[in-house]
């Protein structure tokens, strides 16, 4: 039995190829691990705010110095981090937008990167503090990036892998649904993508 945290970044709800690929991953996890549970965090339904000074001040302040304002500001971050800590598996379903990720996902990322909580700097460099979790990424793109000539234009997959690895989340598998922008090709691309899933 696994606890799955399902992070959804596409605003396209039932039409979203990345979300559909993500749900196919969930189905396979459930088949392999009966009784698994899913907590879904749709970043468009409950968006995280852009990190502002009030959030930064709270991130770096000791808890006993919190004001009501900083307590409220750090709550999004605490909740998001707790959700990850409670999960065995983190699934991120996201579109590629403008060669990278949608800003709702970046806002979530800015709330989970907390010095002393999810990473720390040591004499040997940065150390990720989130351990022992499996990560799956379901990435949808209108065009093709898994091979040249456009591979080097994909800033979404390398960025997510680098960032999550920085937090200690290094056991990561990424699956792509590509070419959704080609008229009529979306569903076939999704089928092909689902066939590539290996847990
Ligand atoms: C604002 C925006 C930016 C996009 N940028 C890219 C891009 O840089 N490269 C690409 O291949 N497709 C791009 N697309 C197409 C999406 O990646 C594609 O439609 C994908 O299927 C969206 O994921 P979803 O179906 O999960 O919403 C973009 C779409 C939107 C709406």
UniProtKB/TrEMBL annotation:
Its EC number is 1.6.5.-, 1.7.1.17
Top enzyme class of this protein?
Answer: oxidoreductase
Question: Is Protein biosynthesis there in the keyword field?
Answer: no
- Stored InterPro entries: Flavodoxin_fold, Flavoprotein-like_sf, FMN-dep_NADH:Q_OxRdtase_AzoR1, NADH:quinone_OxRdtase_FMN_depd
Q: Where does FMN bind?
A: 10, 16-18, 96-99
The residues covered by the Flavodoxin-like fold domain are 2-195
Catalytic reactions of this protein: N,N-dimethyl-1,4-phenylenediamine + anthranilate + 2 NAD(+) = 2-(4-dimethylaminophenyl)diazenylbenzoate + 2 NADH + 2 H(+); 2 a quinone + NADH + H(+) = 2 a 1,4-benzosemiquinone + NAD(+)
State the Pfam families in the record: Flavodoxin_2
The note describing how and how many cofactors are bound reads: Binds 1 FMN per subunit.
Domain of life of the native organism: Bacteria
User: Which keywords are on file for this protein?
Assistant: Flavoprotein, FMN, NAD, Oxidoreductase
- The answer to keyword Flavoprotein applying to this record is yes
Cofactors that this protein relies on: FMN
State the family it belongs to: Belongs to the azoreductase type 1 family.
Cite the record's note on assembly: Homodimer.
Q: What does this protein do?
A: Also exhibits azoreductase activity. Catalyzes the reductive cleavage of the azo bond in aromatic azo compounds to the corresponding amines. Quinone reductase that provides resistance to thiol-specific stress caused by electrophilic quinones.
According to UniProt, the name of this protein is FMN dependent NADH:quinone oxidoreductase
């Amino acid at each position: 039995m696994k606890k799955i945290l399902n992070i959804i970044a596409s605003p396209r709800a039932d039409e979203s190829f990345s979300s559909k690929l993500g749900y196919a991953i969930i189905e396979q996890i459930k088949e392999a691990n009966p009784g698994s549970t899913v907590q879904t965090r749709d970043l468009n339904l409950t968006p995280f705010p852009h990190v502002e000074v009030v959030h930064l001040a709270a991130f770096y302040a000791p808890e006993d110095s919190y004001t009501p304002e900083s307590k409220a500001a750090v709550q999004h971050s605490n909740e998001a981090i707790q959700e990850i800590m409670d999960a065995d598996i983190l699934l991120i379903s996201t579109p590629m937008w403008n060669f990278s990720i949608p800003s709702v996902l970046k806002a979530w990322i800015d709330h989970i990167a907390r010095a002393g909580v999810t990473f720390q700097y040591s004499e040997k460099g940065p150390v990720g503090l989130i351990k022992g979790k499996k990560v799956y990424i379901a990435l949808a793109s209108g065009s093709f990036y898994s091979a040249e000539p456009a591979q080097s234009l994909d800033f979404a997959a390398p960025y997510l892998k680098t960032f999550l690895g920085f937090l200690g989340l290094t056991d990561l598998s990424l699956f792509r649904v590509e070419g959704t922008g080609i008229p009529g090709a979306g569903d076939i691309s999704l089928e092909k993508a689902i066939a590539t899933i290996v847990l």
